[in-house]
Amino acid sequence: MTLGTWGHIQRTEIEPGRWYADCWVRDLDGITRRARRHTPTGVVDRKGAAAERVLIDHLKNRIFATSDDEEITRDTTVATLWKNYRAHLVELGRASNTLQRYDHVAKIIIKGLGGVRLGEVTTQRLERFIRTVESNQGAADAKTCRTVLTGMCGMGVRFDVWSENPVRETRSVDTTPSRTTQALEPEQLRQLLHDVQESDAPCPALPTGKDSESAGEQRKSKKQYRIPTVAEYCRKADLADLITMFTATGVRMAELLAFLPENFDPETKTIEVTGHIVRIPKVGLRRLTNDYDPKMPKNKRRTLALPDYAVVMLQRRIAELQSDDDDATRPDTDTDEHVQTLFPSSTGTLRDPTNVNDQWRRVRAALGVGDITGHSFRKTVATLIDDAEMSARVAADQLGHAQVSMTQDVYMKRGTVRFEVAGILDSVINSGDKVETRPKKKTQASR
């Protein structure tokens, strides 16, 4: 008898209208036991069928109550496996952004493999699917598809569908960007801060139409519409202070947009990173405190020292916010979309990182610095810390990295000409006593 099965059910009459049904069942611990159930009280059971139904219900609950997951076999489809795997991710407490990203690629997986039974899933079939996604949707989606499929098939291995994960031997997807984000030189940083405040260069709408504000401007008649300068657009879009704060802290975009006025301490000239902005599907933007997701080391609270130019900007900004909102009432919870942040949207709600990226894309295109992204500021801060001969741990604490190696390998500028190395070698070779010439060794030919 195999695990989780039972044998022939026998009915035995106790008295007229009352029976019991019993059988042998091999439980999931491998032990075979006798199971028995009686006719329910108040039921007239002429042939024992009622007792047998009660026994069968008991056996089903007995076998399958040990697992909350739907039974997964080689006849299960990929679509059903994804449903079980996603529920597993929710139980593990995966971040909403992660679930949102996985949901996106799951649609691609289900479209290409949803009806395939797990017994038909092979490494060759998965390899062909991943390469198709890479060609049609791009390397980023293909890599995430491979990640999700690895997790799904790992669940299948745990349910004895496969003896080993069929995704393991598929070729990995290369997502190395052709151009990596570069840190800014000090003079570039100073010029950029000046430009967002003072530049009179024209700042036209992006031809891609991604900038929602630009689309609204273009709907105006040509007589009414005047292309703003970079400084004018930055004031209207509230980018100048935001970029200033980026250069002063090197925090993530989601962290910067979650700063609260009370996080700033003008006496100590510090600001505390206490939350981050996320978009939750079917809910919208929310500010989550960094205590919300303890499994994410990068979301730990940290306090940052501020340069004087950022302190002056924040003092002015907070005074302006207080004068605008003296009579406003705010909800107490810091996860509400209307919480007062240092950098709110034009309507006073949480600001969307995607919209900020679109607005900044327009400005950097106007200034001819299209390669300067939000990550550029993080790399710049890390590189300046490195150039000041501070440790990588200092940079990791500033940027909020759980691993110091991440700061060193990705964020600190590499490829700099190190003249000091040449100086060290010169001092070694040219210092000390004169080196004596060694006598030439005699060879057999010279003997």
UniProtKB/TrEMBL annotation:
PANTHER family: INTEGRASE_RECOMBINASE PROTEIN MJ0367-RELATED (PTHR30349:SF41), PHAGE INTEGRASE-RELATED (PTHR30349). Keywords: DNA recombination, DNA-binding. One of its GO terms (biological process) is DNA recombination. Residues 342-354 have a biased composition (Polar residues). It comes from Nocardia terpenica. This is Tyr recombinase domain-containing protein. One of its GO terms (molecular function) is DNA binding. Belongs to the 'phage' integrase family. Residues 200-223, 322-354 are annotated as: Disordered. InterPro entries: DNA_brk_join_enz, Integrase-like_cat_sf, Integrase_catalytic, Integrase_recombinase_N, Tyrosine_recombinase_XerCD.
